[in-house]
Amino acid sequence: MKKRLFALLSILIVLSMFMTGTVSATGEDKAAYGVIKPGQTTTLTQNIPINLVFIGYDAADINKTDLNSWLPSTYKPLVRYPQFYGQPGRDMGLQYNFSYKYVFKDALFTKSFFGYLKSIGHVQGRTLFQDMYNAQANNIRNVGKNVLYIDAPTVEGFLAQSLKMPAKSYTIVFINWYDRPDFQFHVYTKTDTVDPDTGYNFGFNRSSRKMIAWGGTTSRLWFYDLSAGPESWAGSYNVDDADLDGDAFPDYRMPPIWEYAAGGYRNPALLSSDLGMVTRFVGINLLFTTSPLYDPMASAPAYGGRKIIHVNMMEDDPTSSGMDWIKMNKVLAQYKNFQPYYNWVTKVVDGNPIDPNAQVAFRIFNGLSGASDCWNAYGTPFAELFCYFDANRATYIPAYYKRADYVAGFHAFNTTDANMGWNYGLLGFADDNWVDGTPSYVFEFDSPGYRAMGYGFTVTTIHEGGHHFGMSHPHDGYDYEYDWDYGPSGQLYFAWSGDESNTVMHYMDLSLGFSRFDKDNLYRWETAGYLNWSNQLLADLKAHPNYASVTSYVAQAQKNAGMAVTAFNNWNYNFSAAYAKNAYWRLALAAKILGVPTPDAAQPADLGDINPDVPHEGDPIRFPDN
Fold it and tell me: Which tens digit of pLDDT belongs to each residue from 142-201?
């Protein structure tokens, strides 16, 4: 991707953060003063401690100067997709300042920890990718035939409980079992999730889902074990080939720990630097304090509205029914869990068979028809689904009875392998409006070949909806200090390691829901978003001649906003987002009474020219087989 790329104490913190001067307030106007600052931009600044814990490493093994050289001091999230259009995007109103703490666990803890790994692991044979590593010409040792398979979420839970890191912090645990007399070759697994449509267990069946890292299940901890594997996902199994993804650029990946040696794949002096890069470009940028793909406020319902996922099932395969391969109750459950402060509705409509016009658009999109259509104005058939369904929105997306609802349009194509044409392997994508990076529609695909590999519609619906509502992948994101928008390729190929975390937003198909990291990030984005909408709206309310009649609503909003900031400072982000939303909704009710427009009403406006040069891509099947 291109470069662009505690009580009283809490109250005192709130006041110091949000009051730029002392303002006297009397009478009815007193309600206007507090956390919500009419016409101003609020920036929530938070100190984020990062704990770097080392198990099996001695302090002498780590060059802190080299590791520290990669660590950022600050991060300001931005909305990523508008940047590709040269648009600044909305100021998200957030700044994180980092501090770092090194913890080297002693011999007693280390021995106990590796004994615990042995006790919960199960000895099995080598994975396919360990066999592939053994077959490399340049590997310096072979993986033995007995490999310990260890449940990753169990290890995460054990570490979170035993390390007892402060709740208001994030933790990366670097693990090194190698060179100890009790060392065993090992991988980490997650086998407790099956695809809800096909019943396929990716974690159990696929060698490509045997890992070296995990985190974010319920904790703010992620562990990374270079003595595990070698594994497929971030390429540590290959020490012969420079370019793994075929883009003609060398791919930087972290080899197994024994390859940090004289004659090995990596100079041992680079170990500390590599761990620093993993900390920055994976742990911090992609997991702990990431940036949204789309503006999460773009999909916020207006006052009293619901968030609705409307799925149109396009039946393009006469031998099967897509309705057999989607479970909307699962989709609904995950979104209720993700954003419990909204009223969620899901609906699926079966278009059987697919209507002729939609079918033509689908054929053009897949390269099976060269017909001219709306895509010509965009310069690529990849735009065909967006432009067709956008021009015909009223045909496919009904007007729900509440105008305040936010309705997300999903178009699911149950098709054949052949009818996927040149897009075979594409599971789905959350498209933008091709003008300014505002989310538009979700498109997703399933076929007999996809189902044979384990894929139905449900997980794709949750994943692509995650993008539509703002989430990035855990393998691509933004670096604030370098101003880089990046993905897992070239010098940052190792960013694939971010997928080894408990989120439906990864490509590993090991999770149905959203991680603790996802929730923290989304709730922070929405907290700041709603507070700044409140600032904007309060300024408009105060300008109205009948403002005095709604000051009771303003006072309620100020109270909720204060509670939001207190919760934010205490890292209770779910509550901070809910209180911030309530604050804005109280002002929105006042605006409704006075007839004042609200910021959410302005979100759908699409202004500007088509920009065909912006990269558009979808989510493919990765490692379709072993």
Answer: 999 999 999 999 999 999 999 999 999 999 999 999 999 999 999 999 999 999 999 999
Residue 505 and residue 398 share a domain: no
382 plus 451 within the same structural domain: yes
| 528 and 7 Cβ atoms separated by less than 8 Å | no
Rounded Cα distance, 429 and 207, in Å: 26
**Structural domain count, the chain:** 2
Please indicate, yes or no, whether residues 273 and 388 belong to a single structural domain of this protein: no
How far, in Å, CA of 112 to CA of 502, rounded? 25
What are the tens digits of pLDDT across the range 343-381? Answer: 999 999 999 999 999 999 999 999 999 999 999 999 999
For the chain, give the percent of residues with pLDDT over 70.
93
Handedness of CA 280, 283, 284, 287 (dihedral sign): positive
Give the pLDDT mean for 203-207: 97
The full length of the chain comes to 626
Same domain, 188 and 225: yes
DSSP state for residue 430 in the 8-state scheme: E
- Residues 454 and 507 grouped into a single domain: no
Rounded to an integer, what distance in angstroms lies between the CA atom of residue 224 and that of residue 471? Answer: 23
Q: What separation in angstroms does the CA of 408 have from each of 254, 310, 393, 461, 493? A: 39, 6, 11, 11, 33
Domain membership of residue 565 (yes or no) is no
Domain that holds residue 375: 296-470
User: Is 527 a domain residue?
Assistant: no
Q: 3-class SS at 605?
A: coil
Question: Do residues 484 and 467 touch, judged by C-beta distance below 8 A?
Answer: no
Closest CA to 105 of 267, 223, 186, 211: 223
444 and 505 fall within a common domain:
no
Share of the chain above pLDDT 90, in %: 89
Burial class of residue 270 (count of CB atoms within 10 Å of its CB; 0-12, 13-18, 19+): middle
Give Cα separations from 89 to 78, 93, 150, 527, 532 (angstroms).
7, 12, 43, 17, 14
Domain's final residue, options 408, 438, 470: 470
Whether the ω angle into residue 230 lies within 30 degrees of 0, i.e. cis, is yes
Tell me, what's the pLDDT at 609?
76
Q: Cα separation of 290 and 597, whole Å?
A: 31
Q: Are residues 98 and 211 in the same domain?
A: yes
